[in-house]
Design goal:
- The chain has 191 residues and is an alpha/beta fold.
- Helix 4 crosses helix 6.
- The chain has 8 helices and 5 strands; from the N terminus they run αββαβααααβαβα.
- Strand 1 and strand 2 form a beta hairpin.
- It comes from Papaver nudicaule.
- GO terms for molecular function: ATP binding; ATP hydrolysis activity; ATPase-coupled transmembrane transporter activity.
């Protein structure tokens, strides 16, 4: 999460340089930099408007064709069509009328409708049940194609998300455990 905050310049590093393609991000216009990124986090922000309007927060001038394409890539189109008013269905405050998996797939559609060069996934599947996680995982696999993707994973059982990455950039990880030894988890045979 800290790496994502640094990339988006929510704060700047005290030491060292954060760069993209060898360019210090402090030299880039903030609006331009953030415009090149799409974020899907565990804490997705949905508003009490329609499904369509929530997706359009990613691209206010999006056409209906673009919205449908984004929802298809996010594995959301089928469930949206089944809602009482389809894309015009109000989702309730904070998406209260949708399941966790449905909210997450709308958040993915909102991120990818921007066609970002960099996709940031901050614990994007950590709060989902196993059925929803499979659907969201497929959507993230699709959304990550052809773009740089930075994945933050806390739970080791979410490590399967890394199959979408061709190049793994290692960050220094500080693990905090309530009990047990963290090194045991890191040496788990599936990691």
């Amino acid at each position: 999460s800290t790496a994502i905050a640094l990339l988006q310049r929510f704060y700047d590093s005290n030491k060292g340089v954060v760069s993209i393609d060898g360019v210090d991000i402090k030299t880039l216009q903030l609006k331009w930099l953030r415009g090149k990124m799409g974020l899907v986090s565990q804490e997705h922000a949905l508003f009490g408007t329609s499904v369509k309007e929530n997706i359009m927060f990613g691209k206010p001038d999006a056409t209906m064709d673009e919205i449908v394409a984004a929802t298809m890539a996010a594995n959301a189109h089928d469930f949206i069509r089944q809602l009482p008013e389809g894309y015009e269905t109000k989702v309730g405050e904070c998406g209260a009328l949708l399941s966790g998996g449905q909210k997450q797939r709308i958040a993915i559609a909102r991120a990818i409708i921007r066609n970002p060069a960099i996709l940031l996934l901050d614990e994007a599947t950590s709060a989902l049940d196993s059925e929803s996680e499979v659907l969201v995982q497929r959507a993230l696999d699709q959304a990550s194609m052809g773009r740089t993707t930075l994945v933050v994973i806390i739970a080791l059982n979410n490590i399967q998300l890394l199959r979408i990455i061709n190049i793994l950039v290692a960050f220094v990880l500080i693990l905090t455990c309530e009990s047990g030894c963290c090194t045991q988890a890191l040496h788990h045979k599936n990691c």
